Structure formats: structure tokens, C-alpha cells
Amino acid sequence: MRFVAAAMVFAFHAQAMNPYASKSAQAVTKALFGVGGFSGVTFFFVLSGFVLTCAARPRDTTPRFWRRRFFKIYPNHLLTFVASIFLLTVITGQGARVSDGLLNLLLLQSWSTTLDVRISINPVAWSLSCELLFYILFPFIIKLVNKVRPERLVLWTILSAASVLALPIVAGVLPAGPMLPYGFSDLQLYYVFHCPAGQLLTFVFGMFLAKVVLAGRRLPLKLGGAVALTVAVYFITPMFGPLFQFGSLMAIPLGLLVAAAAVADLDRVPTFLGSRLMVWLGNISFAFYLWHYTIIVAGHQWLGQGENWSTLTSAVVEVLLFAVALVVAWVTFKFFEQPIMKRFASPRRALGPAAVTTVPTGDQVDRAA
User: Fold this and answer.
1) CB distance 247 to 171 below 8 Å
2) Backbone region of residue 195 per phi and psi (left: phi > 0; alpha: psi in -120 to 50; beta: other values)
3) How many domains does the chain have?
4) Which of 93, 141, 244, 257 has the fewest CB atoms nearer than 10 Å to its CB?
């Protein structure tokens, strides 16, 4: 499922380049993928809280946890950060401000209320700025979540979901500032989507869902129903207004999808998500996510920045760029990410088993967490 989410983010950024000469083709791709990027990132935030909670190790320590998370995300971030700097300075002829570069390097860019800062260098890395906050706070939040009695888990999960749903409502009443042409302001976009403190609510929602599954509580939907609900909410989301398209509404069905997939895995129900192909794609999804925007921009720059092509040509270009991103992601995972994780992520002494040994995408816990 992680790769499906990453692929949706790719499709969102690909259609945002407006490659189609046909207005109808552009309208169709926007209808299909216009909220895909926001939904994909929301999925990652929910899944992150869910998986980390499921994979919590009884004898783990906070420094060891931080060490694993650092070597999981930062080397890939640094690699793609350098590549994006190269893209800006050599390929496009543009530069980057030193202040933006420093914030990106330290994964602090999402604390800026200025959009140009948040999406500078490698734009997709803003989400890692949020993940950094999640990882710093997780060892402390999990202690509080673990204190919730099993009979109250469903109530706390509902309250957590409500806090996520409240984000666009709160963003709509806070001071907005100058409006953008899309029906919202830069500040509103920050409140509802880019702000790490706001997205922490989505992460905690994933944590509570994990506790519900671990407690053996019955879910309202099985995997098939969760898939149907996710697809339905995805296509009706634009009807709720611009601020709801940024993932708050999608967090609920996506969370149920993650939880239902986890239950299916625990019950050993065979699904496509557990196939060798999906496990492999899940393994390379993080590298794919960090590389894809740079590859899309570079590809369009080399093929003719700002040019529009026929529907068939545009589709071929996007498929080729997708394939390039896939190959680059595999090379990064195989020869960079995986060796670093094996060498540096954990001390040689074993920490003991995780709380569960199966996660919703069919991947192994040590790969996801």
C-alpha cells in the first residue's frame, strides 16, 4: 500500500506539470489525481503512527529508536537534497537561498509559514520535516497512549479522528491573509496541511488505530469495505471545499484501510498487498517518493519545459519518467538505503521481538520501522 500512495503522489505532480495539449485530457487527469498527492501524504502519516506503534519493542530505548529513524530517513534525504540542488543550479539555471538550504538540510522547512520556503529545494521533503517531529515525540506519546484502557480505545480513536477532521474547519476561521487563486491562502494551506504540529494529530490517529487492532477490537469494515469507502471518499472530497482536499477528510477511510489490511495480515488472509511484487515496491517506496519530483522536473526540462504534447505522447512521457523513478529508487534502496540501515540503524545486540511481526502492507516490521 505504501507504493500505491507514493504512485498517487507521483501522478499528482505529473499532472500538475500540465503536459497535455488537450484540455479534456488535462481535466480528466486532474479529476483522477487532483487530490492524490494530499491523500498519499496523509496515508504515510497515518501509516507511520500505526506501524511504529505495532512495532514498538518492549526493551527498546529512546536513543535506539531515534537512531533507527535517523538512519532510515536522513541518508536518503541528504542524497536527494544534493541531487535537487544540482537540478536547481545546473539544469534549470536557478539557485537556492542559503537560508532555505539550511532549513531543508535540518528538516525544519515545514515550520515556516512561507510556502516558497516549505517547498524549496526538494519540495516533497517537507513531509520529512513533519516526520521528524513525530519521531522525536513518539517515545513520549506512546507512553500516554499505552495508558488508555482497552475499553476506552475506540472512544479515544474517534476523538483523535475528530481532531483531524477539525483541521480544515479551524484553518477556515483563523486569520487567512492574502488569498491564492485556488480558494485558500498560504496561511490556511500551512494550518491544514504543512504544519508539523497539525499533522501530528494524523500521526496520533494512526497510533490509536494500531492500539485498537492490537487489542483485538472489531473494526467497522473489513478490507474490501475499507477499500470501497476510501475510493468513494476520494472522489467526493472536492465537493467539501478547497480546505478539505488536503487529506483531513481522507484520513478516516485511509486509517480504516490500514487497520483492515493489518487485520487481514494477522488473520493470514491472502491479499495482493502481501505479494512479493507489492512487498518489493513497498521497500523502495520511500526512495521513490523522495526522487520522483526531481525526476519529473528534470524530465520535463530536458524534453521541453512548458511544452504541451498530445494525449498519447504525454502519457508515454509520464510512463517513462515513472519507470526512471522506479529504477533510481531501486538502485538507491539496494546500494544505499539498505546497506546503511544494516550497518548503522541498530546496535549488534538484539533488542527483542516487536509487539507484532506483521504490518499492513505485508512488509516486515524491521523494514517499515
Assistant:
1) no
2) beta
3) 1
4) 93
